[in-house]
Amino acid sequence: MELSEMLVGLYSKRLVKVNHSALELVCARALVKKGYEVKVEHRLDSSHVCDVMGERGDGELIVEIETGFIPPEAALEPARYARSRVASKIARYSRFAGKFALGTTPSYVLDYPEFFIRPPSTRTEAEARTVKELTDFVYSRPPISIEELINSRLHSIFVIDVDSATTSEVDPEAYRDTASGFLGRNPAVKA
To answer: Which residue in 110, 111, 170, 171 has the fewest CB atoms around it within 10 Å?
Structure first.
């Protein structure tokens, strides 16, 4: 089954949103062009389904799409919710593949702890506990251990432009440095 047919089927069953599916398709197309065999909405275990999984000779890559959606119940803490959601995606999905990336639109600014872009050997248990508090704000099930957090890693950011059907891969440190000019103005956001 073609990726697009699969996503249309999932959309018709109301299992995915159309804007999310469009991002998955454009991202999947870019990965296919880079030589990956690609699956969308791929089940990893009983609790986790990743958005895009790419496999090729040098290993597996998972891309989790982040649109910036804030549900009504988080309307009074949108920055905290968004940061927690992104951190939780990194913490919960990066262990399933050799490389993990977040995919987003050019019109949304991802906010994630610097913790995830440093080598695991430089992270402390105290830092991991702080990040765990953040990840558990949105999702506490399934639980994530301190060890899993210390080993979690963000390798890339994919900026996905649906209008032009293009995807640009950006180093997460460079992305964070650029985004920090916007994020630093928000007192609710802490590094």
So the answer is: 171
